[in-house]
Amino acid sequence: MAALITTPRLIAVGGGALAELPGLMARLGLSRPLIVTDPYIAQCGTLDRATALLDRAQIPWSVFSDTVTDPTTEVIDTGVALLREGNFDSLVGIGGGSSIDTAKGISVLFRNGGQIRDYKVPAEIPEVGPPVIAIPTTAGTGSEVTRFTVVTDTETDEKVLIAGLACCPSAAIVDYELTLTMPLRLTADTGIDSLTHAIEAYVSRRASPFTDGLAKNAMGLIARNIRAACAEPENRAAREAMMLGATTAGMAFSNASVALVHGMSRPIGAFFHVPHGLSNAMLLPEITAFSAPAALERYADCARAMGVAEEGEGSQAAVARLLDELRRLNEDLAVPSPRAYGIERACYDELLPVMAAQALASGSPANNPRVPTADEIIELYRRVYE
Ligand SMILES: [Fe+2]
Fold it and tell me: Strand 148-153 relative to strand 90-95: parallel, antiparallel, unpaired?
């Protein structure tokens, strides 16, 4: 069966790539953007740099800077209303995955109407909306190149996954210099998110030779640089590697899908407001231990790509090294358990059946090498709690 690959039409990559914004817009025939960002980017100087470039190119712009971490249906609706009021032809999402996901959600609802939950996976999005140009300021979600957006439905507290060509940006600007000021926690959480993308894309039942190369490349870049990027924020080589790793991991999982870690991570994020990368990190070692027996060779390849196992080493030994490394990485990056994060046991236990049901409904666990039952997911949630 042929693999169907979705990517942006244009990607500007490298230090200083932000300067390509007016040029990218011209190539795509776009001239009236609504910029979608968050209050921090709006005041830290990054937005000013982008708008100065647009001013110099005499491109008129407006800003919607009220995006929130883990975008909500309410924020998307506000953005859609703003887009309708003005004479815009495009959206420029600047910020972390949340700002970019918000821009995507606005584009989808602007063109197709209805509500985000109408397009919940596996529903199809009928039409592609106004083009989105994505400019990530974190090295993590890969949202700048993916055909996904995740929006929290405020009525149900569910993190809704929507997917399709309509969610893939038309262009991306991947400029690692925008990540030099990222604080430690954000660097660690977003970095582990991108490592999870690469591993899950590689072990996914929907992986293809095309995505395998991207995923292995990303694993090598991230595993070799995540500690340096955390310890030395101004380490440009480490920041560049993390940014490249995040984007290539994004391309890999956009076309191979994520699996059980992400499926189980979204409910933790939605119910307990744990940052996305952190809830992935809480799960990654245990879920890998659960899944590895079903795809030993693939997980051994991950260990080799990450540089924690030798090329000639047997698969069983390589997987043991992978598990060691994932646990050690969590220790080194001070990833708490759900308990240490402050999630109450009683509340957690009570929600487990709903969390398991939401995890399964997202479809991601079905891509896992070992597909769990609801009871097994509940047991895994219990195992990671301590
Ligand atoms: Fe993710």
Answer: unpaired
- 113 C-alpha to center of ligand 1: Å? 26
369 CA to centre of ligand 1 in angstroms: 18
Find the 298 Cα to ligand 1 centroid distance in Å: 20
Report the chain's C-alpha Rg in angstroms.
Answer: 20
Name the residues around ion ligand 1, CB cutoff 5 A.
Answer: 193
Contact 115, 122 (CB under 8 A): no
Distance from the CA of 246 to the center of ligand 1, in angstroms? 10
pTM (2 decimals)?
0.95
Q: Which residues contact 385 (CB under 8 A, 6 or more apart)?
A: 337, 338, 339, 343, 345, 348
- Write down how long the chain is: 386
d(CA 360, CA 30): 40
Strand pairing class (132-136; 148-153): unpaired
d(CA 377, CA 386): 16
Report CA(354)–ligand 1 centroid distance (Å): 21
Distance 253 CA to ligand 1 centre (A): 9
Distance from the Cα of residue 49 to its chain's centroid: 24
Helix runs in 114-160, H state only: none
Q: Cis before residue 285, ω within 30 degrees of 0?
A: no
Tens-level pLDDT at each residue, the chain (386 residues): 799 999 999 999 999 999 999 999 999 999 999 999 999 999 999 999 999 999 999 999 999 999 999 899 999 999 999 999 999 999 999 999 999 999 999 999 999 999 999 999 899 999 999 999 999 999 989 999 999 999 999 998 888 989 999 999 999 999 999 999 999 999 999 999 999 999 999 999 999 999 999 999 999 999 999 999 999 999 999 999 999 999 999 999 999 999 999 999 999 998 999 999 999 999 999 999 999 999 999 999 999 999 999 988 999 999 999 999 999 999 999 999 999 999 999 999 999 999 999 999 989 999 999 999 999 999 999 999 98
16, burial (CB in 10 Å: exposed 0-12, middle 13-18, buried 19+): exposed
Q: Are residues 200 and 159 in contact, defined by beta-carbon separation less than 8 angstroms? A: no
Chain centroid to CA 202: 15
